[in-house]
Every structure is written in structure tokens, then in C-alpha cells.
Amino acid sequence: MTTQITETKPMSGEFTIELERLIDAPIGAVWEAVLTEVGPGFLGRDSTPLGLKLETFPGGRWYRDLSNDTGHLWGHVQSIKPPALLELTGPLFMSLPVTNNVLYRLTEEGGKTTLRFVHSAFGPIPDDLPDGLREGWGSHVDAIERRSAR
Predict the structure, then answer these.
(1) pLDDT tens-digit readout, 134-147
(2) Is the pTM of this model over 0.70?
(3) How many CB atoms lie within 10 A of CB 31?
């Protein structure tokens, strides 16, 4: 029997990414944009849809449907209070023993909506992951803003 040694990358224990955006649209339009962008509108790095589905009730699944009963569980709905709050928890796209929490909080004032987005994670996380996620989540919030204006 041969022993194989695998080199591991440096890992950190946690991170939090917070984004806030004032969107020139009513809260209902932003809420619908969030649901679309979390689900069928969610795009991968190459701008192709990931096939995400969201069951919009407490405990509902958030998953990537690859058809033929294959896919990936990204998480579950931890809390949902339309049109002001969506909170998701689970591994997301990480094949690691990691816990993630993703929060979308919406508040409206004067016909404009503030979207507060927070992604927190805890566990063995590759050190280079948060930098790429900041950019990716920034693009995600941009897409929510664009879709809200339609």
C-alpha cells in the first residue's frame, strides 16, 4: 500500500462581505429582482445561467438543478419576509465543511430602496476565496439593480 501526501492551501476561518446599494426603484421591484437573481437569473463566471432554484418558504431549498436528478444543494431559506428580508444558509458552492449565511435586507424610503447584502462564512476557507467573492457579489448586486429598473 502506498501513502499519498496531499499539499493543502492556506485556509482562514471566516469572512464577511457587506455591500449596500441605494436603488432607484420601489421595494417590490427590487424584491422580485432579488428572487430572480438568486434563482434562474444567477449567472456563473462565464455569464451562463447556473440553473439555481429557490423554494420561497422557510426551510425551502436553494439548489442548482443540473437535470436528471443531479445537482448541488446550495442551502436553505432560513428566513423570508417579503418584500424586506431573505436569509439563506448552507454550503453554497463550497465543497468544504463550511457554513455560509447570505442576507438580503431591503428598506424603502421615498420610492427608492436600499439593498443591504451580507455574506458571512465560517470554516476552512481558502485564503484567496473572499477576494473573488467580493467581485462576484458586486456583479450580483449590479444585476439586481439593473433588473429592478425594468
Answers:
(1) 999 999 999 999 99
(2) yes
(3) 23
Quick one: which of 95, 34, 45, 40 has its CA closest to 63?
40
Q: What is the pLDDT of residues 66-82, one digit of tens each?
A: 999 999 999 999 999 99
Q: Is the dihedral of CA 140, 142, 145, 149 positive or negative?
A: negative
Long-range contacts of 89-92 (CB under 8 A, 24+ apart): 90/62
> Which helix (H) or strand (E) is 5 found in, with range?
none
The four Cα atoms 70, 34, 97, 123 give a dihedral, to 10 degrees, of 170
Calculate the CA dihedral of residues 93, 96, 98, 99 and round it to 10 degrees.
Answer: 40
Alpha helices in the chain (DSSP H): 27-38, 129-148
